Every structure is written in C-alpha cells, then in structure tokens.
C-alpha cells in the first residue's frame, strides 16, 4: 500500500496490466478518466473529481486532498487534468508501474501488424 497526500491506496495496477495487457490497461485508464471528467469541459476538474471520487472508493477525500491531487497532476498549470496528465499521474502513483512504464507504453502503441502507431 502507498500513501499519497494522506490518501492510502493499494497498487493494483501491476496486476491489472498482467491481466489486461498494456493496451487493455491503457484503455481502462482512459475509461477511468472519462468517468471522472467534467463532461462539458472534457477535463477532470476539482468539482468533477470531488463529485465522482466515490467511483474510485475515495468518497471520504477532503477538499484539500482533492485539490492536492489535481495540483500534483496538473502539468500545464490550468487547474485541471487532461487525459495525458491523468494517465501520467496514475503511473507516478504506482511505483511498480514507473519501473516498467517505457515497455508498457511501447507495447500499447504497437499495432496488430507490428507497426508502431
């Protein structure tokens, strides 16, 4: 288990990759993003994360914890998380995923005929 900004979570990502493969795992991350995003803006905002945090089992997150999560992942400084920022944050929160992230990304972007996308 890991602790990030006071939120404790268990790292299930390596097991998910083993089960789904890299491409399937990346699709699941994208699905997770869509569950959490603000449908009108197409990004995860403080409000959308607070409203939908129960979908991740994090319904008890304080406003400060939600703000910290957004701030930690917000690479372009707009106060929201776009899909790439969300995926990057999820990888950063998983120590095991950080170790194998290059291989996973390469596997995810290789087409069925062996060409890279």
From TrEMBL:
Pfam families: EF-hand_8 (PF13833). GO terms for molecular function: calcium ion binding. PROSITE patterns: EF_HAND_1, EF_HAND_2. The keyword Calcium applies. Keywords: Calcium. InterPro entries: EF-hand-dom_pair, EF_Hand_1_Ca_BS, EF_hand_dom, KIC/PBP1/KRP1. The keyword Repeat does not apply. Residues 61-96 form the EF-hand domain. It comes from the Eukaryota. This is Putative EF-hand domain pair protein. It comes from Rosa chinensis.
